[in-house]
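Predict the structure of Glyoxalase-like domain-containing protein.
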Amino acid sequence: MLSLDHIAVAARTLKEGRAFVEQALGISLQKGGQHPRFGTHNLLIGLEDGLYLEVIAVDPQADLPPDPRWFRLDEFEDDPCLHNWICRTEDMAADLPRMPVGAGRVVALARGDLRWKMAVPEDGRLPYDETCPALIQWQGRHPAAGLKQSGARLLRLVVRHPEADTLAAEMAPLLDDPRVVFERADRPALVAEFDVNGERRSLGRAE
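Done. Here is the predicted structure for Glyoxalase-like domain-containing protein.
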């Protein structure tokens, strides 16, 4: 079975993404790093239960990658929003073929001393309008182990899409996590609900 690994806020710049998350959750982000393969960089928050949140944006100092950036960031021109969720596998070769069609091909990646494999679609677009989870397999240290804990715990991740029932059925054999809830809606969206030091807060699309 897969495990929920982390959630990602997309932004045009890290400055915009930082302001969006810190206003919504009241938590300061920590330094992340660069992803040379896709020309992006990030900021991070350590969550309870071994999860983390990242803010990810195009790195203006990076070289242009050889193919489209992950998470549709080449064409992302919206306000910052909770844009993706990522599930962890212990066997990419076995689990990727069981994912929805279009979940991607395996790419080997690195950031500093971190090493992992990720399933990335060739066009950078995950199925179901980015509401299908991306698949990751860590090789060695997990980044959450090096993050300062924020006092935030994920309560629910709501996945909204016109075909949410179909996505839920496709993911059911792979993921059994009561925090992940699928809801039919006219527009695709993700909403995360947190307990932040005893206060309930949410993160989704910017108003």
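The first helix runs from residue 14 to 25.
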